[in-house]
Amino acid sequence: MEISKIAKILDANIIVSNHDSKHKVKYGFASDLMSDVLTLEEEEVILITGLCNIQTIRTAEMANISVILYVRNKQVTDEMIHLAKENDMTIMQCNYSMFRTVGLLHENGLCPVY
Q1: Could you tell me which residues come within 8 angstroms of residue 62 by beta carbon, excluding any fewer than 6 positions away?
Q2: pLDDT band at 21 (very low <50, low <70, confident <90, very high)
Q3: What distance in Å separates the CA atoms of residue 103 and residue 96, rounded to the nearest whole number?
Q4: What phi and psi, each to the nearest 5 degrees, are found at residue 14?
């Protein structure tokens, strides 16, 4: 699924974009537990989380995840933006709950990791 399509479905804002809008992800993984994120082996994953701090960026980097979507209108900090740019990541925000976000993305063809 293209990042631009995700943004449209969720009425999401793209805060940092180090990919073009046609960059695709195949899988979605929703978690606020960063230890669970570190268990992922798939590529082309979008991390969907409500945990909005610098550790989400660092964890995504370690898990080779380049797209993060923050739900519940969480606001990223300048430090997070800077680190995401350094790591060629795309950061998005939406107002929806995690439940609604995951449901909409799955309904539109994004595959679950498990």
Answers
A1: 38
A2: low
A3: 11
A4: -95, 115
71-105 pLDDT, tens per residue?
Answer: 999 999 999 999 999 999 999 999 999 999 999 99
Handedness of CA 10, 96, 111, 49 (dihedral sign): positive
CB 7 within 8 A of CB 106: no
Per-residue tokens: 16: 């940092």
Question: Which domains does the chain possess?
Answer: 3-101 (3.40.1390.20)
Q: Which of 33, 44, 101, 34 is nearest to 72 (CA)?
A: 101
Predicted confidence (pLDDT) at residue 113 exceeds the cutoff of 70: yes
pLDDT score for 78: 96
How many beta carbons lie within 10 A of that of residue 77, not counting itself?
12
